[in-house]
Specification:
two-stranded antiparallel sheet, single chain, elongated, efflux transmembrane transporter activity, four-stranded antiparallel sheet, 6 strands, lipoprotein, 502 residues, Outer membrane efflux proteins (OEP), membrane, palmitate, transmembrane beta strand, alpha+beta
Length: 502
Amino acid sequence: MYKQFLRYTMPIVLLCGLAACTVGPDFRRDHMKIPDQWTEKVWKKPATAEQIAQATNDMKRWWEQFHDPLLNHLVEEAINNNYDLKTAGQRILSAQALRDKNAASWYPQLDGSAGYGYQTTSYTTSQTIAQNGNANNAAIRRYGATFSWQIDAFGQIRRMVQSQEEAVKVSIEERRSILLTMLSQLANNYVTLRNMQLRLRIADENVAIAQYVYNLAQKQYLEGTGTTLSTAQAQAELEAQRASREPIKTSITQITHAIDVLIGQVPGTTEALLKEEKPQPDLPPYPPSIPSIALANRPDVRMAERQYAMATANIGVAVSQLYPQFSIDMSAMPTTSFTSQMANIASLVSSSFINMSIPGLHGGRLSAQVKGAQADAEAARLQYRQTILNALKEVEDVIAAWGDDSEHVELLHKSKLSSQLALERAQKLYKAGLTGYLDVLTSQRTATTAANAEAVAILDRFQDAVNLFTALGAGWQGVDITKTELPVTLEQQNIWAKAIKQ
């Protein structure tokens, strides 16, 4: 009896021991040399570790550094209601479900069956059924169970689960990337909206100036000191300044529509609220950082690394196809019959097998799968490196723009003040009859150009701040991975699914 027990159990023990073997390479992080500091500088002295740590913590909710309550409210609405973000959350749940499905192959599979029916047997004589027949009727009951277990002898299931686990992480980083893109678009649209309102105010001021000059030209004409040419030129300039307001108003409306879509609302929902002119937001201070922290925070870099890990696990899946596969199958099917003569007949059919499947001739298909998986993994590693380079370039570009645009705003502000002073003097000279209208027109256009140029430069400064926060990978750290509900809840599933969590 003992020998018979060993004969049946030893193969199972050996197979379980083989399950500790996992073929294929394990993932190892690819180390790429990166600089310790950014090449572009905003501060003359390097930031201290404390300053970097404080800035990194503050950037978790960087939009609050603009000190604009409405912007904060819009961000919260977008986080909760943006449909692209919700869709990405569902992709995470889908990837997790597929991972759990693959992981279920590790465990034995047990299924039950049952049946009840009737069986009738009729005897015939000369191909004619007897009128009173001697039919034997039987009621048959069948029930049984089947058991199967795939032994993960060479780690095929393990590598599949590893690959899908990395796919889950990829979907998480993809959602974070979508979140940062959404935050960037929302903040950029908001600061652009406020800047367009500033430009509309500048346009209104230019209309008022043009109206004043036109009234002055008309007055001089009526007094005999002016000409019809000056009056016509002044009127043309007035109409041009009035016309310049309309494209700005259109842009403001379109921006409100874009913001509505980002927060998951029908375009026009918040138009009235957003069109209320408010002060410009505060400009956030420069956030000191270092390349290693930026790369560790950027979702695109993190996602590229997880894709490399997933591709590495897929090599193991392909290699495992070259090795034998083992499984255990068992079944038991008792059958009970009750005949019309009340006879009770019982039977039991059972079976148990240890199966082994060995790869044979496949024309090089299995080896080609391994080569393809290796090439995919190498491509993922190279793409990871390219993503790092792109990330470093993006940050360096924004830092360079931050410093240059700061100086640009200062110079344009001085230009605006000088052009406004020149316009005031030209108006006084024209009113006194000491200069012609052409000088006034030239000064007015110069002042208009300078004011608009300063407004554009101010917008560039705000967008530099938003773009730098985004390039540094900030903003996702304080947001939950998923805020979503499945269409069918656990309570709505069938009772068996809830009971045994199939």
